[in-house]
Amino acid sequence: PEGKTMCSLCSRLRRGILYRVARELKCNKLALGHHRDDMLQTFFLNMFFGGKLKGMPPKLVSDNGEFMVIRPLAYVAESDLIRWAAHRQFPIIPCTLCGSQENLQRLQVGNMLREWQKKHPGRIENMFSALQNVVPSHLMDAKLHGFKDLKITGIESDDGDKAFDEEEFKESSLPGIQVISM
What we know:
Blueprint: H1 7-24, E1 29-31, H2 36-50, E2 59-61, E3 68-70, H3 78-88, H4 96-99, H5 105-119, H6 123-130, E4 168-171, E5 178-181
Parallel strand pairs: 1-3
Antiparallel strand pairs: 2-3, 4-5
């Protein structure tokens, strides 16, 4: 529709072409260049505009089971890739369709994340860490956690309510970053 972005259509068309070419070349694995910021942006886009707690995993099997999709840059910050590309003098080919569209939600979400990071350093790393530390029993998806079948057992559970958990210091999946969990 007029005034709407074409991102989802463009994405589907690109993916269809990639699958077709992979099939022609008899390949069953596709490596895509999504980075950490793409992963977070997609998560928030799905939450804000799709009503789903959903993102992009670093590895998944295509819907038809024919291809493995991998994202080897999933843990790399966009800013690091920008600096690396400049250092190596890689040509950057912008998508003029995306950049020229009004109402681009991905751009707005990206700006929101950058602003949060500027005001609260470390927030991006914490949000990315949260995508890797999901506690289904503390969300509301009955398909992931059987709330209606819950019973009092009198036995402590690792999935239990830990409102006042002790602080944990653990290594992040990102080199040089220490994550503080509460």
